Please model this.
Amino acid sequence: MKKRTALVGLLPLLCGSLLGSSALAADASPDAKALAVLKQTGLLCYSAIITVNDKTDAALGKQAEAIMLKTFSGLYLKATQYDAADTCDRELIYTFDVDAAGAPTIYTDDLKLHTYVATDGDTTLPSATIWSDGYWGGDAKVWSRATFTKKMTDHLVTMMSQFATDYRSLK
Model:
């Protein structure tokens, strides 16, 4: 099991989540201030877990991680792929789960930033989600691989755009 460590964070910044995303991230979300922890010292890790019909899809996971890495590069934000890191202070995790084996097709996907060992001086949490975005839905039809891959990519690009907008909004 990977050791997860972190610097002290602030619980007031650890509250709230954003479920659902605007089409293209034009404005910072109410949770943008929580990304201030990324300007502190500590290692940011990222990972993508893609599950198709109850089986992990490593190829789609790598595709999703490439989208994440491209955003980090555009923000000049140093991040390490989770499996390549000894420790992580914070982790941006993307998950996409689709059941397309039969009708109806059902999916969920979300992007969450976790910080490890968060405290406000009185309360300490081993892990806290401090920023999130996500989708869920379905279709009466069975989706092809191309259809759910496009849905995954479109949603991840939109969520990473919101992440970038929120990060850039920090003063």
About this structure: Strands lie at 3-4, 44-52, 55-56, 80-81, 87-88, 90-99, 105-119, 124-139.
